[in-house]
Amino acid sequence: MIGFGLAEIVTDLEVKKHALDLLMRHETGKGLSNYDLIPDQKVNATAIIKISIEKITGKAHQLPKKDNQDE
Fold first, then answer.
1. What pLDDT, in 10s, does the model give residues 32-54?
2. 10 Å Cβ neighbour count for 57?
3. What is the SS3 assignment for 34?
4. Do the beta carbons of residue 28 and residue 22 sit within 8 Å?
5. Which residues, including other chains, have CB under 8 Å from residue 58's CB and lie 6 or more apart?
6. What is the pTM of this model?
7. Predicted confidence (pLDDT) at residue 71 exceeds the cutoff of 60
8. What is the CA radius of gyration of the chain?
9. Mean pLDDT of 26-36
């Protein structure tokens, strides 16, 4: 897949915290509140890039049929 859109650097501290929380929930199943508090200074030093997708393109391929599929 290839996506086209607008990328922008997030600077708002609360939006950055929310993005990091979503990332942690996705990767670990637990939000930031389950871990030691990250100081605001470290969150501000973390680059978060928001990508607003305008268009996605891609290809689809059918899986080959298995020999015993008709049985």
1. 888 888 899 999 999 999 999 99
2. 8
3. helix
4. no
5. 1, 2
6. 0.69
7. no
8. 20
9. 90
